[in-house]
């Protein structure tokens, strides 16, 4: 191996030169330390660094759907202490999308930080306190005291899925001007020229102007997504689905694919691309919105109608209707956003249910076995009885999201779906909480503190199908939606699992286990492992409790049926006895089972037909429940009554009576004793 130098540069192995474009000073020093290590034996140490191009590639393509971009913008508004967010999608054109909030807004310093530090958010940092983006005494909270959703600082650039051109209009309260930022994003290219690839990657360009404002007290941010990508427009319009549907209509009916259908409810299918200069829309299929029959519906009534329309498919279209099959992509977008955003529930938080509601409440324990029933007194809420604190009311005045004048709510409700198949005729609400003691785990691997509350809701069916599974909310928001594998629960409980919807409300930890797209988790993270382990234990308790409650109900029902059967047998035997005796002055004698011969003899002296149970082996099944013994005794009594009616017992010894009854019962119940 040789060494050399070039143009005065530091010598590298094989004549390499350290003075190269794009090589950082720290990189040069580390290279030199490694070379020195050959002779000194001392290890070279440094800190791992991430290249700017990696971040550029990440911001360009980590988000998968149009809903992801809007979800991130909603989260940003929440972190900025907005109480209202208004989104206008320009449906069904989707030529541009506007997102407007009344949050704290940005000043020049905050906007400059956003532009120059993609992936360098001030949230959860001491810098956030100075810039007014976090609480003064807690960098993990917003100024109004909300637990922050965002952390990295790339959420705004999720809009690259929708457009390469957007504008930011923002203002802080008390400012006498607004900032207008015009942003052009650059798409990352793998096959760039070598010279361009050597330069620091530029995500795009920004032009900012300041415009005087008269409304000094106003504050907030408006983001306008211009020139929506054709691919994104086609997704929002459900173009591929409509084209497939019309292709099927051209085929003979016998050749059509039944899986290809038009959405039941939709925003309409355009017959042609709208003219930008003309407001006229030409539909091939006009809009069929869920609220079309409501006169002047309010924003909340529209969303209620959305949920009702989906639930209404039960019985008419499917026992487990699907969002994707019932709605077009636009309405499905509303559903997805309503699940992911930190907005209130449609009919109230599950922890606010009382004994007056449908579900019966149980407390999940951190031990094996069954969950413990919660006895709710009067109008007591589940949260009060179980000591739970998770809620859906945002600090700082609440939080509402409106999309095209539709108010989003979490579309998870807890009413009972009647089913004759189920022994349990009411839903079951299982709640629990967990804060593991991680003090003995080394700080380097425990991932910080972890604390969460959760519910698992069992029903005869979960509507819609997409609500089946577990959804994890971190600080009120979720990007992963429902996981129908329940974090890879490897137990054959498929029927019961399809009847459960669950949510986990994380108040501390797990955030680091979220992958960068916030739509999936790092399964190897210790917090994820702890949450999944708790969930699987909770599922076993749900199964054990539901089985026990169901079994008790079926047992009680069987006992009632058995009593009814015994009464019918007794009545038939009595009628047969009277018909055989033809004596209106007599009545059938009682037939009883005595515990021993002496007790049987005593009862016979009182005119009762009595049998010694110990001599009737056919009454005792080889293996069975007490109910099986009762059934055999009922039949024995009926048979004995009929035989007595025909005089069979009149001159028969008691021992022979026992042998006869054993023989007859053996005909009905073959226990392999013969």
UniProtKB/TrEMBL annotation:
One of its GO terms (molecular function) is ATP binding. The keyword Oxidoreductase does not apply. It comes from the Bacteria. SUPFAM superfamilies: ATPase domain of HSP90 chaperone/DNA topoisomerase II/histidine kinase (SSF55874). Gene3D superfamilies: Histidine kinase-like ATPase, C-terminal domain (3.30.565.10). Pfam families: HATPase_c_3 (PF13589). Keywords: ATP-binding, Nucleotide-binding. Residues 1-28 are annotated as: Disordered. This is ATP-binding protein. It comes from Agaricicola taiwanensis.
